[in-house]
Design a protein that fits this description.
The protein is an alpha/beta fold and 235 residues long. It has one domain: Carbamate kinase, CATH 3.40.1160.10. Helix content is 40%, strand content 20%. It is built from 9 helices and 11 strands. The chain has a 9-stranded mixed beta sheet, with helices on both faces. A two-stranded antiparallel sheet has the order 7-8. The two termini are 22 Å apart.
Length: 235
């Protein structure tokens, strides 16, 4: 396989599937199947999943919620998604652990790098929940932080589009896809694949990002096998 250890970032919205809200059982099972296949092939898989299918802190703040409380609610939404994914993986006979950035025993174990790396080395799919544990930080930033901490070979950002384009491909049929793009070009072209804090952390710590369509079954393992899937963002 191309990578030994990855940080897989999944969006909460994708987990909702066609339901647009909540957790779509078919999509959840598809994700679990792809992740199990990667783990069975010897890849150490760490995961961060967003919570936008349940609650998004920024949206709550826009509706009058206190920002800190709203972000805390968003963190809890990521815990719900993480537990759902853990359950789906267990049902697929794939061992998984949930580590939370907020002390929430017995729901999940409190995160530490040492514990995360230990579980990864033991073959567990390791799911990092509750973002960074702090308000004002997105799950994108949480993904960058965890990917850097566990010394992942790359961050794989699973989305509903098949890479990075020069404009929104869902709105512009003539949008041009990049096979490879540098972090500096992202900034110059104002392409927001993640928030600026997240991309800056990846750039400064030389953690490549690969943006790909996770919703197309089989893409994850094609990418891990070395196929030219998605867009590579690199220094």
């Amino acid at each position: 396989m191309k990578y030994k250890r990855i940080l897989l970032k999944l969006s909460g919205e994708s987990l909702a599937g066609e339901d647009k809200f909540g957790i779509n059982s078919e999509r959840l099972a598809e994700y679990a199947k792809q992740i199990k296949e990667a783990a069975d092939n010897g890849v150490q898989v760490a995961i961060v999943i967003g919570g936008g299918n349940i609650f998004r802190g920024l949206s709550g703040a826009a509706k009058g919620f206190d920002r800190v409380n709203g972000d805390s609610m968003g963190m809890l939404a990521t815990v719900i998604n993480s537990l759902a994914l853990q359950s789906a993986l267990s049902s697929a006979d794939c061992k998984a652990k949930v580590l939370t950035a907020i002390n929430m025993a017995p729901i999940g174990e409190f995160y530490s790098k040492a514990k995360a790396v230990e579980y990864l080395n033991q073959g567990y799919v390791t799911i990092f929940a509750a973002g960074t544990g702090n308000p004002y930080f997105t799950t994108d930033t949480g993904s960058s932080l965890r990917g850097i901490e566990i010394e992942a070979d790359a961050m794989l950002k699973g989305t509903r589009v098949d890479g990075v384009y020069d404009s929104d491909p869902e709105k512009n049929p003539n949008a041009v896809k990049f096979e490879t793009i540098s972090f500096d070009e992202l900034y110059e072209k104002n392409l927001r694949i993640m928030d600026l804090t997240a991309t800056t952390m990846c750039k400064e710590n030389k953690l490549d990002i690969i943006v790909f369509n996770m919703d197309e079954v089989g893409n994850l393992n094609k990418l891990l096998s070395g196929e030219n899937i998605g867009t590579l963002v690199t220094c």
